[in-house]
TrEMBL record:
Protein name: Transport permease protein
Record has Transmembrane as a keyword: yes
Predominant location: membrane
Family assignment from sequence similarity: Belongs to the ABC-2 integral membrane protein family.
Organism: Dactylosporangium fulvum
Transmembrane segments: 25-44, 56-80, 101-126, 138-159, 171-190, 237-255
Membrane topology: Multi-pass membrane protein
PANTHER family per record: NODULATION PROTEIN J
Subcellular location per the Swiss-Prot or TrEMBL entry: Cell membrane; Membrane
Length: 261
């Protein structure tokens, strides 16, 4: 079998294992949905003509849901698998590391699709988030989501090597995810964030994922409200692609089958 074929088969197993873990399903799928409902119900100010805070926040939460599914869940899940010896047993098989990474990407893409559908349906039904009106915007939505969740997945796999044990996974990954959400323009309009924090956020994928999602779901007139005065689709694609390449290199360089001890 080719590495790709093995990775796809591994992806099917990863999806089954995820669905059998009720805690992971509830946390991964329900938490972003809960935040969307709470913030959408509390804040409803108008940020610009025809754009409410709820619509702005909903677009950002679509990106945050992909971050939660790709980066946060894997940075927590993999150290647990490593501590339980699951990865050690996989190491004894002919499956290469790349196939294992492909399996994680397949699982995250499937769960991310379900997450996106839930968030999008809730935002449309409860908070009047307008759906994209053109094929071009739907295409932008697809490539931003696919590039973004792939980058987050590979970064999550690489970041999982920092956790010394399964218990320390949440303590290591959760603060990073929360900080990135606050400085990337999800909870607070990006133009209102201090410049030095915006500079930090612009290095990471989430800021560009949020901006890409805003370009899809907010009016084109809102582009003038962005810090750089436009949607910057080309820069978004380049940054996300760079993180995919860099994330894969980090995965291959840092991934461990067993605990450091």
């Amino acid at each position: 079998m080719t590495t790709l074929h093995l990775g796809l088969l591994r992806g099917g197993l990863e999806i089954k294992q995820f669905l059998r873990s009720r805690e992971s399903v509830v946390f991964t799928l329900a938490f972003p949905l809960l935040l969307l409902v709470l913030f959408g119900a509390i804040f409803n100010d108008e940020l610009a003509p025809g754009v409410s805070y709820t619509q702005y926040f909903a677009a950002g939460m679509l990106a945050a849901g992909l971050l939660s599914t790709g980066f946060q869940s894997l940075a927590i899940q993999i150290p647990i698998e490593r501590e339980k010896g699951i990865l050690k047993r996989l190491r004894g098989t002919p499956m290469p590391r790349t196939a294992y990474f492909i399996g994680k990407v397949v699982m995250v893409l499937a769960i991310g699709l379900a997450e996106t559908i839930l968030l999008l349906a809730t935002a449309v039904l409860l908070f009047d988030l307008p759906l994209p009106s053109t094929a071009g915007k739907w295409l932008t939505f697809v490539w931003v989501a696919v590039l973004g969740i792939t980058a987050c997945t590979l970064c999550g796999i690489a970041f999982s090597s920092l956790a010394r044990s399964g218990r320390s996974g949440p303590a290591v990954a959760t603060p990073v995810a929360i900080v990135l959400q606050f400085i990337s323009g999800i909870f607070i309009p990006y133009q209102n964030i201090p410049g030095w924090l915006r500079d930090i956020a612009s290095v990471f994928p989430l800021k560009w994922m949020c901006q890409g999602m805003r370009s899809v779901f907010l009016p084109d007139s809102f582009a003038a409200q962005e810090v750089d005065g436009g949607w910057q689709h080309g820069t978004t694609a380049l940054v996300l692609a760079a993180w995919i390449v860099g994330g894969l290199v980090l995965c291959l360089a840092t991934f461990r089958w067993t605990d450091r001890s």
